[in-house]
C-alpha cells in the first residue's frame, strides 16, 4: 500500500490496485485495532475464567514456563524453573510437607523482587531432584537474615529462578517457592499459606490473608 496524490485528497493505492481515501483507510485501521483489542480482552477473560471455574480437585497446568513434562498425583507433584532445566518433586502432604507460609521480611522482598515471598517447607529426606541439580547455583549470606542464620539460595544457573533456600538454623529443611509448583491448583489448596510472618513489614496496600495465623516477627524461631 502506498500514497498517491489525487485532485481533492490524498489516497492510498493498495497492493491489489484499489484506490481508497485516507479517511477510509484510517477507518479501516481503527476497526482492525478495535477487533484486535476485543480479541485480546476475550482471550484474557477466557483465561481468567478457566483458572477460577475449573475443578480444583484436579491438576491444572496453564502455559507457564518452558517445561512440558510437569505432573501432579495424589501425594506428589513437580516444581520447575522457568526455563525447565531444573525440576524437583515434592510431597503434597505430611510428614514431608512441613508447613506453608507467607513472609514479608525485607530479605524475602529483595530476593524475590516482589513485596513478599510465598513459601512451603519440605523435609530434606523427601525432596527429589528429578533433573538439573548440577545446574543449580548457590549464593549464601547472613547479613540480611533477621535471625542471623546463613541462608543458602539455590538458583537455576540458566534462567535464575530461585528454587529453594536452606537456613543454617534448619539445615534439614528446604524452603521452596509456591510459584515454582507446576500444578496451579495446588497453590490454592494444599499449599495455601497457613501462616503469615513479619507482618510488620507488609506494605500498606496489601491486606492480611483471611484465616491465616499472623506473626509480626518470625513464625518459626
From TrEMBL:
Gene3D superfamilies: glutathione-dependent formaldehyde- activating enzyme (gfa). InterPro entries: CENP-V/GFA (IPR006913), Mss4-like_sf (IPR011057). Residues 77-195 form the CENP-V/GFA domain. It holds the Pfam family GFA. One of its GO terms (molecular function) is metal ion binding. It comes from the Eukaryota. Keywords: Lyase, Metal-binding, Zinc. SUPFAM superfamilies: Mss4-like. Belongs to the Gfa family. This is Histidine acid phosphatase. It comes from Sclerotinia borealis (strain F-4128). The lineage of its organism: Eukaryota, Fungi, Dikarya, Ascomycota, Pezizomycotina.
Amino acid at each position: 500500500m502506498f500514497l498517491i496524490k489525487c485532485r481533492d485528497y490524498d489516497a492510498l493505492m493498495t497492493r491489489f490496485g484499489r484506490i481508497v481515501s485516507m479517511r477510509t483507510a484510517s477507518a479501516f485501521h481503527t476497526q482492525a485495532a478495535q477487533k484486535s483489542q476485543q480479541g485480546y480482552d476475550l482471550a484474557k477473560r477466557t483465561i481468567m475464567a478457566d483458572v477460577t471455574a475449573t475443578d480444583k480437585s484436579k491438576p491444572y497446568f496453564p502455559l507457564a514456563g518452558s517445561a512440558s513434562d510437569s505432573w501432579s498425583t495424589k501425594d506428589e507433584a513437580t516444581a520447575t524453573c522457568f526455563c525447565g532445566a531444573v525440576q524437583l518433586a515434592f510431597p503434597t502432604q505430611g510428614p514431608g510437607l512441613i508447613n506453608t507460609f507467607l513472609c514479608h521480611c525485607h530479605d524475602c522482598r529483595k530476593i524475590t523482587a516482589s513485596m513478599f515471598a510465598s513459601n512451603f517447607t519440605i523435609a530434606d529426606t523427601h525432596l527429589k531432584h528429578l533433573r538439573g541439580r548440577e545446574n543449580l547455583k548457590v549464593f549464601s549470606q547472613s547479613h540480611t537474615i533477621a535471625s542471623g542464620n546463613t541462608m543458602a539460595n539455590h538458583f537455576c544457573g540458566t534462567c535464575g529462578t530461585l528454587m529453594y533456600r536452606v537456613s543454617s538454623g534448619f539445615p534439614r529443611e528446604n524452603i521452596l517457592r509456591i510459584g515454582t509448583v507446576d500444578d496451579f491448583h495446588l497453590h490454592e489448596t494444599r499449599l495455601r499459606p497457613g501462616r503469615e510472618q513479619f507482618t510488620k513489614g507488609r506494605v500498606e496496600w496489601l491486606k492480611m490473608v483471611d484465616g491465616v495465623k499472623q506473626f509480626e516477627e518470625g513464625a518459626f524461631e
